[in-house]
Structure formats: C-alpha cells, structure tokens
Write a structure and sequence with these properties.
The chain has 284 residues and is an alpha/beta fold. The chain contains ten helices and seven strands. Helix 1 crosses helix 10 and helix 9 runs antiparallel to helix 10. The radius of gyration is 18 Å and the shape is globular.
Length: 284
C-alpha cells in the first residue's frame, strides 16, 4: 500500500470493527489465561474484569477511561460493575459517536485530547487507560520536554483527577527486550504506526519511576502470549470474513487493518514490545 493511501485505523466504523473484534468492539489484548476453549468475546470479558479489579471499580463510584475506544469498558463498568458514572475521552470522532449512540445515561464521552482535559477535572475513584498512554505520550505538549518529563506530567494529571486513595490501572505496550532491532522497528513503523496514531512505547522502569511520590505500584504483570492469541483471533476473523470486511470498510481500510495485525504480531514475536498490566494506588 503506497504512502498516499494511508488510513486512520482508529477512525474505523463500528460496523467494520465488529467484523473482526468482539461484540463490545474491544481493540486491545484479551485475557485468555491459557484456556484453549475460550472464544474472543469471553477472553475480552475476562480482560475487562481484570481492568475493573486492578482499578478497584466501586458500586456507585466514578470512573475515567482515557482513550475509551468504542466504549466497551465504559458500559461494562456501568452495567456489570454498577459504577455510578463513567466518563470516556477519545480523539476519534467515530469512537465518540458510537459511545454517544449507545444512549446509556450513566456513560459520558468527551471527544478531546488528554492534554486538553482540564486539570480541575477531579473526583474519580478509578482511572483506566487501555493501550492509550502510548498515544498520550506521543502527543505531549512541547513544554513537557523529554519522555521522562512527559510521563511525570501525565501521571501528575491523573493523580489530580482522582480522589484520595484512588486507583489507576493501565494496559500499556512497553518496550521489549529486543527494542534495538532496527529491522523490526522499521516494520512496526511501516505497517502499524502508518495506519494508526503516533505512539511512544515507554520502558516499564521509566514509567514506574515517573510515578514516584504520586503512585504506589500495587501489581505489575507483563506478557506477550495473550496479545499474540488476540492478534491471531483478529487475523483469522479478517481472513474468514474478508468479503464482508471489504464491503463495509473498503479495500484500503481492510488492507491497513491486516497490516496492523501483521506488523504488531511481528513486533511482539520479535521482542520489540510487550503488554504490561499495571495497578497503582494514589499516594496522598
């Protein structure tokens, strides 16, 4: 696909995403837990439960979802975990429009950038970010300076948005052990980031250090098997339903999505990236 045919993966229509993703339109790693008989819907539900546990969702509480996608975690928080109010932010018009169309009175979405959300926004018991911090860091204002400074400011803002004792849970693509392999980096740039938003994969240690004095790490798990199985499931669905996918999204979007799946798979297999599930507790 030539450079002038790029498409924005995150502006895919809900109908196109539904072809290859789960019923909640979750476009991040599922949680398979080594179970061979799980389908994608059940594996994604297990991941949503994991994020809810890591962020300590409370009945009647307030949740902020940074980079909320198509709203799967927001509706899960309200319907299954009985939180009182769930706010999602996203810079994708397609995603924001879909969340609004769900018509859930306890779910709110704001189509704004992380860095434009007022620091005065506060009162959240729980904050979650599922494969979105990478894009937040890439879009940091120039006055944030280096990556460590941007990480620190990002975590400081999230700290300000939570109540004392609040929790923050993130699923993050972190730099893997083979992060210096130029050939894989070129493939990642060519097949993933070309069809996506710019992203910075932080080193896990740098991210944890940036939260010093703000956030106490409660649990940290890194893995790649669940991500690989999720990508395999998405790739299989795209292949099996190619005609339908092309009819809904067009040839360019279908090809871009296949490239994204293929490039991300190569990056994970090659050790360029890993998934980290992190739970933090606010330090007061």
């Amino acid at each position: 696909m030539s450079g002038d045919t790029n498409v924005d993966f995150y502006e895919s229509s809900p109908e196109f995403v539904r072809v290859w993703a789960d019923s909640r339109l979750t476009i991040s790693s599922a949680l398979w837990q080594g179970c061979p008989d799980l389908d994608l819907d059940r594996a994604q539900e297990q991941k949503l439960n994991l994020m809810a546990d890591l962020a300590d969702f409370k009945p009647g509480g307030k949740v902020l979802d940074i980079g909320c996608g198509y709203g799967g975690l927001l509706t899960f928080a309200v319907d299954e975990r009985k939180v009182g109010h769930a706010l999602g932010i996203t810079t994708s018009a397609s995603q924001a429009g879909h969340v609004k169309s769900l018509g859930n009175p306890a779910v709110e979405v704001s189509d704004c950038d992380f860095w434009d959300l007022p620091v005065e926004t506060a009162g959240f018991d729980s904050v979650v970010a599922v494969q979105s911090l990478e894009h937040v860091l890439a879009g940091a204002p120039a006055d944030c300076g280096s990556d460590p400074k941007a990480m620190r400011e990002m975590l400081r803002r999230i700290h300000a948005w939570t109540v004392p004792g609040g929790r923050f849970a993130a699923e993050v693509c972190v730099a893997g052990p083979a992060e210096t392999r130029d050939d894989l980096h070129e493939q990642l740039d060519a097949e993933v980031l070309r069809n996506s938003r710019q992203a910075i994969m932080p080193r896990l240690g740098d991210l944890l250090n940036a939260g010093s004095g703000l956030w106490e790490p409660v649990s940290i798990v890194t893995q790649h098997e669940d991500m690989l199985r999720t990508l395999e499931a998405a790739g299989s669905r795209l292949s099996e339903r190619e005609q339908e996918a092309r009819a809904i999204g067009g040839d360019r979007l279908y090809q871009a999505t296949c490239e994204t799946v293929r490039g991300t798979t190569a990056a994970v297999r090659g050790g360029i990236m890993r998934i980290a599930w992190i739970s933090w507790k606010r330090i007061d």
